[in-house]
Automatic annotation (TrEMBL):
Pfam families: IglE_N (PF22361). This is Type VI lipoprotein IgE-like C-terminal domain-containing protein. InterPro entries: IgE-like_C (IPR054378). Residues 43-126 form the Type VI lipoprotein IgE-like C-terminal domain. Residues 147-160 have a biased composition (Pro residues). PROSITE patterns: PROKAR_LIPOPROTEIN.
Length: 160
């Protein structure tokens, strides 16, 4: 293979990687130790949600979306205990995201709500039957679109 052809293939591979990992995607890293879900695989759903409806959702209502996903479901995956799995999710233009973990017998927090502005990455650690930890980095303020009015400064305390 000549250097020119090899160079084009390398450039094409780099372009594919940039598109696959490009901006506008949420990186979701899920750590599930061996005892997660009593050693059984479990489903994860990533959905667009209204925060008010999210607060009132029943486990069975969310679980039914695995077999019959509606337009709110952005991604489903099977998680295997004893693994760290990484996902990339393209969030919707607007709205919040719910990341739901469908444990066989949930005991505690089984969902995570991510509200705008969405972070670029989220790390979640699971335990036997609930979310153990979630780590969401602080949002980086985005620049206002050109032509947008400037954001006013926060008021200064008296005497400052």
């Amino acid at each position: 293979m000549t250097g020119r052809v090899y160079g084009r293939m390398t450039l094409a591979a780099a372009a594919v990687l940039l598109v696959a990992c490009g901006p506008g995607k949420l990186r979701l890293n899920v750590k599930s130790p061996p005892g997660t879900n009593l050693g059984r695989p479990l489903y994860m759903l990533v959905r667009q949600v209204d925060p008010k409806q999210y607060a009132n959702e029943e486990y069975s209502e969310v679980a039914s979306k695995v077999g019959s996903p509606d337009k709110s479901v952005l991604q489903t995956a099977v998680l295997y205990p004893g693994t760290i799995q990484r996902f990339q999710v393209r969030p919707p233009e607007e709205g919040a995201l719910a990341v739901s973990f469908l444990f066989t017998a949930p005991d505690g927090n089984w969902q995570l709500l991510l509200t705008p502005p969405l972070p670029s990455a989220v790390d979640v650690e699971l335990t036997v039957s609930r979310i153990l930890t979630d780590s969401v980095p602080p949002a980086i303020p985005s620049q206002a679109p050109s032509g947008a009015p400037p954001v006013p400064e926060a008021p200064k305390p008296p005497g400052a």
